[in-house]
Amino acid sequence: MDAETLRTAALASKAWPYEEARKLLKRWPDGKPAGQPVIFETGYGPSGLPHIGTFNEVARTSFVRHAYEELTGAPTRLIAFSDDMDGLRKVPDNVPNQEMLATHLGKPLTQIPDPFETHESFAHHNNAMLRSFLDRFGFDYEFASSTEYYIGGRFDEAIRNVLANWDAIMGVMLPTLREDRRRTYSPLLPVSPSTGRVLQVPVEVIDAQAGLIAFDDEDGVRIHQSAFGGLGKLQWKVDWAARWVALGVDYEMAGKDLIDSVIQSGKIARILGGRPPEGFNYEMFLDEKGEKISKSKGNGLTLDEWLRYGSEPSLAFYIYREPKRAKSLHIGVIPRAVDEYWQFRGNYPGQPIEQKLGNPVHHIHAGKVPTAALPLTYGLLLNLVSLPGVADKDTAWRFVQRYAPGTSAETDPELDELIGLAVNYARDFVVPTLHRRVPSEVEAEALRDLDSELQKLPPGADGEAIQNAVFEVGKRHPFDSLRAWFQALYETLLGSSQGPRMGSFIALYGIDNSRKLIAEALATN
Prior knowledge:
A hairpin with a 4-residue loop joins β5 (204-207) and β6. With 525 residues, the protein is mainly alpha-helical. It has helices at residues 3-12, 16-27, 52-72, 98-102, 122-136, 146-151, 156-164, 166-173, 179-182, 236-247, 259-271, 303-309, 312-320, 334-347, 353-358, 360-364, 378-385, 393-403, 413-430, 441-456, 463-476, 482-494, 502-509, 511-523; strands at residues 38-44, 76-82, 142-145, 188-190, 204-207, 212-216, 222-226, 232-234, 254-255, 281-282, 285-286, 327-328. Among the domains are: 3-153 and 162-174 and 235-282, Rossmann fold, CATH 3.40.50.620; 378-433; 441-523, Arc Repressor Mutant, subunit A (Orthogonal Bundle), CATH 1.10.10. The chain contains 24 helices and 12 strands. It has a 3-stranded parallel sheet with strand order 1-2-3. The relative contact order is 0.09.
Protein backbone atom coordinates (compact mmCIF):
# COMPACT_ATOMS: atom_id res chain seq x y z
CA MET A 1 0.00 0.00 0.00
CA ASP A 2 1.30 3.50 -0.79
CA ALA A 3 2.07 5.97 1.99
CA GLU A 4 -0.81 8.35 1.25
CA THR A 5 -3.41 5.54 1.20
CA LEU A 6 -1.99 4.24 4.46
CA ARG A 7 -2.04 7.69 6.07
CA THR A 8 -5.64 8.34 5.01
CA ALA A 9 -6.79 5.02 6.45
CA ALA A 10 -4.73 5.49 9.62
CA LEU A 11 -6.30 8.88 10.26
CA ALA A 12 -9.69 7.18 10.45
CA SER A 13 -8.60 3.95 12.15
CA LYS A 14 -9.97 3.12 15.60
CA ALA A 15 -6.96 0.96 16.46
CA TRP A 16 -5.62 2.30 19.75
CA PRO A 17 -2.05 3.07 18.53
CA TYR A 18 -3.50 5.40 15.87
CA GLU A 19 -5.81 7.03 18.41
CA GLU A 20 -2.76 7.69 20.58
CA ALA A 21 -0.68 8.91 17.62
CA ARG A 22 -3.38 11.41 16.70
CA LYS A 23 -2.86 13.05 20.12
CA LEU A 24 0.64 13.90 18.93
CA LEU A 25 -0.74 15.32 15.70
CA LYS A 26 -2.78 17.75 17.79
CA ARG A 27 0.24 18.49 19.97
CA TRP A 28 2.39 19.37 16.94
CA PRO A 29 -0.01 20.17 14.04
CA ASP A 30 2.88 21.41 11.89
CA GLY A 31 5.45 19.00 13.25
CA LYS A 32 7.96 19.67 15.99
CA PRO A 33 9.90 22.94 15.49
CA ALA A 34 13.07 22.83 13.36
CA GLY A 35 12.37 19.24 12.38
CA GLN A 36 13.24 17.95 15.85
CA PRO A 37 12.25 14.34 16.53
CA VAL A 38 9.19 13.58 18.62
CA ILE A 39 10.44 12.04 21.88
CA PHE A 40 8.84 8.91 23.30
CA GLU A 41 9.93 7.71 26.73
CA THR A 42 9.47 4.63 28.88
CA GLY A 43 10.64 4.35 32.46
CA TYR A 44 12.07 1.39 34.35
CA GLY A 45 12.75 1.07 38.07
CA PRO A 46 15.58 -1.48 38.39
CA SER A 47 14.86 -2.31 42.04
CA GLY A 48 13.64 -5.73 40.92
CA LEU A 49 14.11 -8.11 38.04
CA PRO A 50 12.46 -7.07 34.76
CA HIS A 51 9.20 -8.88 33.96
CA ILE A 52 6.78 -8.81 31.08
CA GLY A 53 5.01 -5.81 32.59
CA THR A 54 8.29 -3.92 32.22
CA PHE A 55 8.70 -5.00 28.62
CA ASN A 56 5.05 -4.13 28.03
CA GLU A 57 5.66 -0.39 28.21
CA VAL A 58 8.41 -0.44 25.60
CA ALA A 59 6.37 -2.62 23.26
CA ARG A 60 3.17 -0.58 23.54
CA THR A 61 5.04 2.70 23.26
CA SER A 62 6.74 1.35 20.14
CA PHE A 63 3.32 0.56 18.64
CA VAL A 64 2.30 4.20 19.11
CA ARG A 65 5.62 5.44 17.80
CA HIS A 66 5.28 3.42 14.60
CA ALA A 67 1.67 4.56 14.17
CA TYR A 68 2.82 8.19 14.45
CA GLU A 69 5.55 7.59 11.88
CA GLU A 70 2.98 6.10 9.50
CA LEU A 71 0.79 9.16 9.96
CA THR A 72 3.53 11.75 9.52
CA GLY A 73 6.81 10.33 8.29
CA ALA A 74 8.39 12.60 10.93
CA PRO A 75 11.53 11.61 12.90
CA THR A 76 11.12 10.08 16.36
CA ARG A 77 13.26 8.83 19.24
CA LEU A 78 12.46 6.34 22.00
CA ILE A 79 14.31 6.72 25.30
CA ALA A 80 14.23 3.79 27.74
CA PHE A 81 15.07 5.54 31.01
CA SER A 82 16.26 3.60 34.04
CA ASP A 83 15.72 5.28 37.41
CA ASP A 84 18.82 3.55 38.73
CA MET A 85 19.83 6.31 41.15
CA ASP A 86 16.73 5.62 43.22
CA GLY A 87 17.40 4.37 46.75
CA LEU A 88 16.57 0.70 47.42
CA ARG A 89 13.51 0.78 49.68
CA LYS A 90 13.05 -2.96 50.30
CA VAL A 91 14.76 -6.20 49.36
CA PRO A 92 13.01 -8.04 46.49
CA ASP A 93 11.76 -11.53 47.34
CA ASN A 94 13.14 -13.18 44.20
CA VAL A 95 16.86 -12.44 44.33
CA PRO A 96 19.79 -14.16 46.13
CA ASN A 97 22.00 -12.68 48.87
CA GLN A 98 19.10 -10.90 50.56
CA GLU A 99 20.99 -10.33 53.82
CA MET A 100 23.71 -8.49 51.90
CA LEU A 101 21.14 -6.35 50.11
CA ALA A 102 19.48 -5.46 53.41
CA THR A 103 22.70 -3.82 54.59
CA HIS A 104 22.55 -1.44 51.62
CA LEU A 105 18.93 -0.25 51.95
CA GLY A 106 18.59 3.42 51.05
CA LYS A 107 21.61 3.54 48.78
CA PRO A 108 21.32 4.30 45.04
CA LEU A 109 20.79 1.09 43.08
CA THR A 110 24.01 1.65 41.17
CA GLN A 111 25.93 1.73 44.47
CA ILE A 112 24.61 -1.63 45.70
CA PRO A 113 26.62 -4.81 44.96
CA ASP A 114 25.05 -7.19 42.45
CA PRO A 115 23.47 -10.10 44.40
CA PHE A 116 23.97 -12.27 41.32
CA GLU A 117 27.68 -11.38 41.32
CA THR A 118 27.82 -10.87 37.56
CA HIS A 119 27.76 -7.07 37.17
CA GLU A 120 29.15 -3.89 38.64
CA SER A 121 25.99 -3.25 40.71
CA PHE A 122 22.42 -4.45 41.28
CA ALA A 123 21.16 -1.80 38.87
CA HIS A 124 23.73 -2.72 36.23
CA HIS A 125 22.56 -6.35 36.41
CA ASN A 126 18.88 -5.49 36.01
CA ASN A 127 19.55 -2.88 33.35
CA ALA A 128 21.52 -5.48 31.39
CA MET A 129 18.62 -7.92 31.59
CA LEU A 130 16.21 -5.31 30.29
CA ARG A 131 18.47 -4.23 27.45
CA SER A 132 19.19 -7.81 26.46
CA PHE A 133 15.52 -8.56 26.03
CA LEU A 134 14.74 -5.32 24.23
CA ASP A 135 17.64 -5.99 21.89
CA ARG A 136 16.38 -9.50 21.26
CA PHE A 137 13.11 -8.06 20.04
CA GLY A 138 14.88 -5.58 17.82
CA PHE A 139 13.45 -2.45 19.46
CA ASP A 140 14.90 0.83 18.26
CA TYR A 141 15.60 2.64 21.52
CA GLU A 142 18.20 4.67 23.39
CA PHE A 143 19.01 3.48 26.89
CA ALA A 144 19.48 6.21 29.50
CA SER A 145 20.76 5.83 33.06
CA SER A 146 19.55 8.19 35.77
CA THR A 147 22.87 7.83 37.58
CA GLU A 148 24.83 8.85 34.51
CA TYR A 149 22.57 11.86 33.93
CA TYR A 150 22.84 13.06 37.54
CA ILE A 151 26.56 12.43 38.07
CA GLY A 152 27.45 13.68 34.60
CA GLY A 153 25.67 16.98 35.23
CA ARG A 154 23.02 16.57 32.55
CA PHE A 155 20.29 17.20 35.13
CA ASP A 156 22.02 20.12 36.89
CA GLU A 157 19.90 22.68 35.06
CA ALA A 158 16.74 20.73 35.85
CA ILE A 159 17.72 20.65 39.54
CA ARG A 160 18.43 24.41 39.46
CA ASN A 161 14.95 24.90 37.99
CA VAL A 162 13.40 22.85 40.81
CA LEU A 163 15.26 24.76 43.49
CA ALA A 164 14.12 28.06 41.97
CA ASN A 165 10.49 26.91 41.99
CA TRP A 166 10.65 25.14 45.35
CA ASP A 167 7.63 26.74 47.01
CA ALA A 168 5.34 26.25 44.01
CA ILE A 169 6.30 22.55 43.78
CA MET A 170 5.70 22.12 47.52
CA GLY A 171 2.29 23.67 46.94
CA VAL A 172 1.46 20.88 44.50
CA MET A 173 2.82 18.04 46.56
CA LEU A 174 2.00 18.81 50.20
CA PRO A 175 -1.82 18.59 49.84
CA THR A 176 -1.39 15.03 48.44
CA LEU A 177 0.59 13.76 51.44
CA ARG A 178 -0.27 12.47 54.89
CA GLU A 179 0.50 14.79 57.80
CA ASP A 180 3.54 12.84 58.98
CA ARG A 181 4.97 12.71 55.46
CA ARG A 182 4.52 16.46 55.00
CA ARG A 183 6.98 17.13 57.81
CA THR A 184 9.84 15.37 56.01
CA TYR A 185 8.90 15.85 52.35
CA SER A 186 11.40 17.50 50.05
CA PRO A 187 11.33 17.80 46.24
CA LEU A 188 15.05 16.95 46.30
CA LEU A 189 16.64 14.05 48.17
CA PRO A 190 20.24 14.67 49.26
CA VAL A 191 22.83 11.91 49.23
CA SER A 192 24.41 11.52 52.66
CA PRO A 193 28.14 12.29 52.58
CA SER A 194 28.68 9.86 55.47
CA THR A 195 26.58 6.81 54.49
CA GLY A 196 25.92 7.27 50.76
CA ARG A 197 22.21 6.78 51.32
CA VAL A 198 19.50 8.77 49.53
CA LEU A 199 17.87 10.62 52.43
CA GLN A 200 14.19 11.37 52.96
CA VAL A 201 14.76 14.54 55.02
CA PRO A 202 13.68 18.19 54.88
CA VAL A 203 15.97 20.28 52.70
CA GLU A 204 16.66 24.01 52.89
CA VAL A 205 17.49 25.83 49.68
CA ILE A 206 20.45 28.14 50.40
CA ASP A 207 21.21 29.34 46.87
CA ALA A 208 19.08 28.03 44.01
CA GLN A 209 21.31 29.40 41.27
CA ALA A 210 24.43 27.87 42.78
CA GLY A 211 22.60 24.67 43.69
CA LEU A 212 23.52 24.96 47.37
CA ILE A 213 21.31 23.15 49.93
CA ALA A 214 21.38 22.34 53.63
CA PHE A 215 20.01 19.35 55.58
CA ASP A 216 20.58 17.27 58.68
CA ASP A 217 22.57 14.10 58.00
CA GLU A 218 21.70 10.75 59.58
CA ASP A 219 23.97 11.49 62.53
CA GLY A 220 22.29 14.88 63.14
CA VAL A 221 25.15 16.96 61.73
CA ARG A 222 24.02 19.95 59.66
CA ILE A 223 25.38 19.59 56.13
CA HIS A 224 25.82 22.24 53.46
CA GLN A 225 26.50 20.76 50.02
CA SER A 226 25.76 21.08 46.35
CA ALA A 227 22.69 19.43 44.87
CA PHE A 228 24.49 18.99 41.55
CA GLY A 229 26.68 16.25 40.11
CA GLY A 230 24.90 13.31 41.75
CA LEU A 231 24.93 14.72 45.28
CA GLY A 232 21.16 15.02 45.22
CA LYS A 233 18.31 13.23 43.47
CA LEU A 234 14.87 14.62 42.74
CA GLN A 235 11.92 12.98 44.49
CA TRP A 236 10.40 10.66 41.92
CA LYS A 237 7.27 12.63 40.92
CA VAL A 238 9.40 15.75 40.65
CA ASP A 239 12.08 13.71 38.91
CA TRP A 240 9.51 12.51 36.37
CA ALA A 241 8.36 16.05 35.63
CA ALA A 242 11.89 17.45 35.45
CA ARG A 243 12.89 14.63 33.10
CA TRP A 244 9.98 15.40 30.78
CA VAL A 245 11.07 19.02 30.62
CA ALA A 246 14.82 18.36 30.38
CA LEU A 247 14.50 15.73 27.65
CA GLY A 248 11.56 17.31 25.82
CA VAL A 249 9.42 14.20 26.19
CA ASP A 250 6.27 14.25 24.03
CA TYR A 251 4.74 10.87 24.88
CA GLU A 252 4.84 8.50 27.84
CA MET A 253 2.24 6.02 29.01
CA ALA A 254 1.84 4.68 32.54
CA GLY A 255 -0.14 2.12 34.50
CA LYS A 256 -3.56 2.90 35.90
CA ASP A 257 -2.07 2.90 39.39
CA LEU A 258 -0.10 6.04 38.48
CA ILE A 259 -2.99 8.25 37.36
CA ASP A 260 -2.62 10.63 40.33
CA SER A 261 1.14 10.71 39.86
CA VAL A 262 0.76 11.66 36.21
CA ILE A 263 -1.53 14.52 37.22
CA GLN A 264 0.86 15.82 39.89
CA SER A 265 3.93 15.46 37.68
CA GLY A 266 2.07 17.27 34.92
CA LYS A 267 1.42 20.23 37.22
CA ILE A 268 5.08 20.32 38.23
CA ALA A 269 6.20 20.15 34.61
CA ARG A 270 4.17 23.28 33.90
CA ILE A 271 5.70 25.04 36.92
CA LEU A 272 9.11 24.19 35.47
CA GLY A 273 8.11 25.86 32.21
CA GLY A 274 7.45 22.69 30.26
CA ARG A 275 4.53 20.84 28.73
CA PRO A 276 3.49 17.42 30.06
CA PRO A 277 3.68 14.63 27.48
CA GLU A 278 0.73 12.94 25.86
CA GLY A 279 -0.09 9.40 26.93
CA PHE A 280 -2.68 7.11 28.42
CA ASN A 281 -3.04 4.90 31.49
CA TYR A 282 -3.17 1.18 30.82
CA GLU A 283 -4.62 -1.48 33.10
CA MET A 284 -2.33 -3.72 35.10
CA PHE A 285 -1.50 -7.37 34.49
CA LEU A 286 -2.72 -9.88 37.06
CA ASP A 287 -1.32 -13.26 38.05
CA GLU A 288 -3.33 -16.50 38.09
CA LYS A 289 -4.75 -15.52 41.50
CA GLY A 290 -5.99 -12.18 40.20
CA GLU A 291 -3.32 -10.25 42.10
CA LYS A 292 -1.31 -7.38 40.63
CA ILE A 293 2.07 -8.45 39.30
CA SER A 294 4.94 -7.09 41.36
CA LYS A 295 8.67 -6.97 40.63
CA SER A 296 9.49 -7.46 44.29
CA LYS A 297 7.13 -10.42 44.75
CA GLY A 298 8.22 -11.99 41.48
CA ASN A 299 4.68 -13.31 40.98
CA GLY A 300 4.54 -12.59 37.27
CA LEU A 301 5.99 -14.38 34.30
CA THR A 302 9.59 -13.72 33.49
CA LEU A 303 10.50 -12.89 29.93
CA ASP A 304 12.41 -16.15 29.61
CA GLU A 305 9.45 -18.18 30.86
CA TRP A 306 7.18 -16.89 28.10
CA LEU A 307 9.84 -17.56 25.49
CA ARG A 308 10.31 -21.13 26.70
CA TYR A 309 6.70 -21.90 25.80
CA GLY A 310 5.57 -19.17 23.39
CA SER A 311 7.02 -17.34 20.41
CA GLU A 312 8.23 -13.75 20.50
CA PRO A 313 5.40 -12.45 18.25
CA SER A 314 2.81 -14.17 20.46
CA LEU A 315 4.07 -12.16 23.45
CA ALA A 316 3.84 -8.89 21.53
CA PHE A 317 0.38 -9.94 20.31
CA TYR A 318 -0.84 -10.58 23.86
CA ILE A 319 0.54 -7.26 25.04
CA TYR A 320 -1.03 -5.35 22.16
CA ARG A 321 -4.64 -6.36 22.78
CA GLU A 322 -7.01 -4.43 25.05
CA PRO A 323 -4.48 -2.30 26.95
CA LYS A 324 -7.18 -0.68 29.06
CA ARG A 325 -8.54 -3.99 30.40
CA ALA A 326 -6.92 -5.90 33.27
CA LYS A 327 -5.67 -9.22 31.94
CA SER A 328 -4.24 -12.35 33.50
CA LEU A 329 -0.61 -12.98 32.70
CA HIS A 330 0.49 -16.49 33.57
CA ILE A 331 1.70 -19.68 31.91
CA GLY A 332 -1.82 -20.83 31.08
CA VAL A 333 -2.53 -17.96 28.65
CA ILE A 334 0.37 -18.79 26.33
CA PRO A 335 -1.11 -21.54 24.09
CA ARG A 336 -4.17 -19.49 23.22
CA ALA A 337 -2.08 -16.38 22.60
CA VAL A 338 0.12 -18.32 20.17
CA ASP A 339 -2.82 -19.71 18.21
CA GLU A 340 -4.68 -16.39 18.13
CA TYR A 341 -1.56 -14.64 16.85
CA TRP A 342 -1.35 -17.08 13.94
CA GLN A 343 -5.09 -16.77 13.28
CA PHE A 344 -4.85 -12.98 13.00
CA ARG A 345 -1.69 -13.25 10.93
CA GLY A 346 -3.39 -15.68 8.56
CA ASN A 347 -6.31 -13.26 8.08
CA TYR A 348 -4.08 -10.26 7.36
CA PRO A 349 -3.27 -10.71 3.62
CA GLY A 350 -6.90 -10.91 2.54
CA GLN A 351 -8.18 -7.99 4.59
CA PRO A 352 -9.01 -4.53 3.23
CA ILE A 353 -6.69 -1.80 4.46
CA GLU A 354 -9.09 -0.63 7.19
CA GLN A 355 -9.11 -4.09 8.75
CA LYS A 356 -5.38 -4.53 8.28
CA LEU A 357 -4.71 -1.40 10.31
CA GLY A 358 -6.93 -2.75 13.08
CA ASN A 359 -5.21 -6.13 13.03
CA PRO A 360 -2.72 -6.50 15.91
CA VAL A 361 -0.14 -8.14 13.64
CA HIS A 362 0.18 -4.91 11.62
CA HIS A 363 1.41 -3.13 14.71
CA ILE A 364 3.58 -5.83 16.27
CA HIS A 365 5.40 -6.30 12.94
CA ALA A 366 5.54 -2.54 12.20
CA GLY A 367 3.56 -3.01 8.99
CA LYS A 368 5.86 -5.74 7.63
CA VAL A 369 3.82 -8.85 8.40
CA PRO A 370 5.48 -12.16 7.45
CA THR A 371 3.58 -14.19 4.86
CA ALA A 372 4.44 -17.75 5.95
CA ALA A 373 1.51 -19.83 7.25
CA LEU A 374 1.29 -22.82 9.58
CA PRO A 375 -0.28 -26.17 8.55
CA LEU A 376 -1.52 -26.85 12.10
CA THR A 377 -2.15 -25.12 15.40
CA TYR A 378 -0.14 -24.95 18.59
CA GLY A 379 -3.07 -26.56 20.41
CA LEU A 380 -3.02 -29.52 18.03
CA LEU A 381 0.74 -29.87 18.48
CA LEU A 382 0.27 -29.88 22.26
CA ASN A 383 -2.12 -32.82 22.00
CA LEU A 384 0.33 -34.68 19.78
CA VAL A 385 3.46 -34.20 21.89
CA SER A 386 1.57 -35.02 25.09
CA LEU A 387 1.14 -38.63 23.93
CA PRO A 388 3.56 -41.36 25.02
CA GLY A 389 6.38 -41.80 22.55
CA VAL A 390 5.99 -38.36 20.94
CA ALA A 391 7.59 -36.29 23.69
CA ASP A 392 10.54 -35.09 21.65
CA LYS A 393 10.96 -32.71 18.74
CA ASP A 394 12.36 -35.17 16.20
CA THR A 395 9.52 -37.65 16.68
CA ALA A 396 6.94 -34.88 16.49
CA TRP A 397 8.46 -33.70 13.20
CA ARG A 398 7.90 -37.15 11.66
CA PHE A 399 4.20 -36.89 12.40
CA VAL A 400 4.03 -33.32 11.15
CA GLN A 401 5.80 -34.15 7.88
CA ARG A 402 3.33 -36.94 7.17
CA TYR A 403 0.46 -34.56 7.92
CA ALA A 404 1.99 -31.66 5.95
CA PRO A 405 4.31 -33.10 3.28
CA GLY A 406 7.11 -30.83 2.13
CA THR A 407 7.66 -29.14 5.48
CA SER A 408 10.99 -29.31 7.29
CA ALA A 409 12.95 -27.59 10.03
CA GLU A 410 15.11 -25.94 7.38
CA THR A 411 12.31 -24.57 5.20
CA ASP A 412 9.83 -23.82 8.00
CA PRO A 413 11.78 -22.32 10.92
CA GLU A 414 8.70 -20.88 12.62
CA LEU A 415 7.00 -24.29 12.59
CA ASP A 416 10.19 -25.85 13.90
CA GLU A 417 10.25 -23.32 16.74
CA LEU A 418 6.59 -23.97 17.51
CA ILE A 419 7.14 -27.73 17.77
CA GLY A 420 9.96 -27.16 20.24
CA LEU A 421 7.85 -24.77 22.31
CA ALA A 422 4.96 -27.26 22.37
CA VAL A 423 7.31 -30.04 23.53
CA ASN A 424 8.48 -27.79 26.40
CA TYR A 425 4.94 -26.83 27.42
CA ALA A 426 3.59 -30.39 27.21
CA ARG A 427 6.49 -31.82 29.21
CA ASP A 428 6.22 -29.21 31.96
CA PHE A 429 2.48 -28.63 32.29
CA VAL A 430 0.33 -31.05 30.28
CA VAL A 431 1.76 -34.55 30.68
CA PRO A 432 1.89 -34.42 34.51
CA THR A 433 -1.87 -33.70 34.61
CA LEU A 434 -3.08 -36.29 32.09
CA HIS A 435 -5.16 -39.26 33.24
CA ARG A 436 -7.01 -41.42 30.75
CA ARG A 437 -10.16 -42.66 32.41
CA VAL A 438 -11.96 -45.93 31.76
CA PRO A 439 -14.81 -45.55 29.21
CA SER A 440 -18.38 -46.32 30.23
CA GLU A 441 -20.33 -49.08 28.44
CA VAL A 442 -21.99 -46.55 26.12
CA GLU A 443 -18.65 -44.90 25.40
CA ALA A 444 -16.93 -48.25 24.82
CA GLU A 445 -19.53 -49.26 22.28
CA ALA A 446 -19.11 -45.95 20.47
CA LEU A 447 -15.32 -46.36 20.49
CA ARG A 448 -15.67 -49.81 18.88
CA ASP A 449 -17.88 -48.23 16.25
CA LEU A 450 -15.37 -45.46 15.64
CA ASP A 451 -12.56 -48.00 15.31
CA SER A 452 -14.59 -49.82 12.66
CA GLU A 453 -15.21 -46.57 10.75
CA LEU A 454 -11.56 -45.58 10.88
CA GLN A 455 -10.61 -48.99 9.52
CA LYS A 456 -12.76 -48.31 6.47
CA LEU A 457 -11.06 -45.00 5.67
CA PRO A 458 -8.11 -44.85 3.27
CA PRO A 459 -4.71 -44.34 4.97
CA GLY A 460 -4.40 -40.82 3.55
CA ALA A 461 -7.87 -39.61 4.57
CA ASP A 462 -7.88 -35.91 5.38
CA GLY A 463 -9.06 -34.30 8.58
CA GLU A 464 -12.45 -33.34 7.17
CA ALA A 465 -13.35 -36.91 6.12
CA ILE A 466 -12.24 -38.21 9.52
CA GLN A 467 -14.19 -35.50 11.34
CA ASN A 468 -17.35 -36.47 9.46
CA ALA A 469 -16.87 -40.11 10.47
CA VAL A 470 -16.41 -39.09 14.13
CA PHE A 471 -19.60 -37.01 13.97
CA GLU A 472 -21.64 -39.82 12.47
CA VAL A 473 -20.50 -42.28 15.13
CA GLY A 474 -21.49 -39.83 17.86
CA LYS A 475 -24.95 -39.41 16.37
CA ARG A 476 -25.55 -43.18 16.36
CA HIS A 477 -25.03 -43.62 20.08
CA PRO A 478 -27.11 -42.42 23.04
CA PHE A 479 -25.01 -39.46 24.16
CA ASP A 480 -26.77 -36.44 25.67
CA SER A 481 -25.08 -34.34 23.00
CA LEU A 482 -22.24 -34.50 20.49
CA ARG A 483 -20.30 -32.42 22.97
CA ALA A 484 -20.53 -35.30 25.46
CA TRP A 485 -19.17 -37.64 22.78
CA PHE A 486 -16.18 -35.46 22.11
CA GLN A 487 -15.63 -35.03 25.84
CA ALA A 488 -15.53 -38.80 26.15
CA LEU A 489 -12.93 -39.01 23.36
CA TYR A 490 -10.73 -36.43 25.05
CA GLU A 491 -10.95 -38.08 28.47
CA THR A 492 -10.57 -41.72 27.41
CA LEU A 493 -8.04 -41.32 24.57
CA LEU A 494 -6.05 -38.22 25.50
CA GLY A 495 -6.50 -38.03 29.25
CA SER A 496 -7.70 -34.41 29.17
CA SER A 497 -11.04 -32.68 29.74
CA GLN A 498 -10.63 -30.72 26.52
CA GLY A 499 -8.91 -31.30 23.25
CA PRO A 500 -8.53 -30.61 19.54
CA ARG A 501 -10.73 -31.07 16.54
CA MET A 502 -10.63 -34.86 16.45
CA GLY A 503 -10.51 -35.14 12.68
CA SER A 504 -7.40 -32.97 12.53
CA PHE A 505 -5.81 -34.81 15.44
CA ILE A 506 -6.37 -38.28 13.97
CA ALA A 507 -5.06 -37.10 10.60
CA LEU A 508 -1.92 -35.79 12.34
CA TYR A 509 -1.39 -38.76 14.65
CA GLY A 510 -2.32 -41.27 11.97
CA ILE A 511 -5.31 -43.60 11.67
CA ASP A 512 -3.36 -46.68 12.77
CA ASN A 513 -1.90 -44.92 15.81
CA SER A 514 -5.32 -43.53 16.71
CA ARG A 515 -6.82 -47.03 16.52
CA LYS A 516 -4.13 -48.16 18.95
CA LEU A 517 -5.28 -45.46 21.38
CA ILE A 518 -8.83 -46.77 21.05
CA ALA A 519 -7.63 -50.34 21.67
CA GLU A 520 -5.78 -49.23 24.81
CA ALA A 521 -8.90 -47.48 26.09
CA LEU A 522 -11.09 -50.52 25.41
CA ALA A 523 -8.58 -52.82 27.12
CA THR A 524 -9.30 -51.00 30.39
CA ASN A 525 -13.06 -51.42 30.02
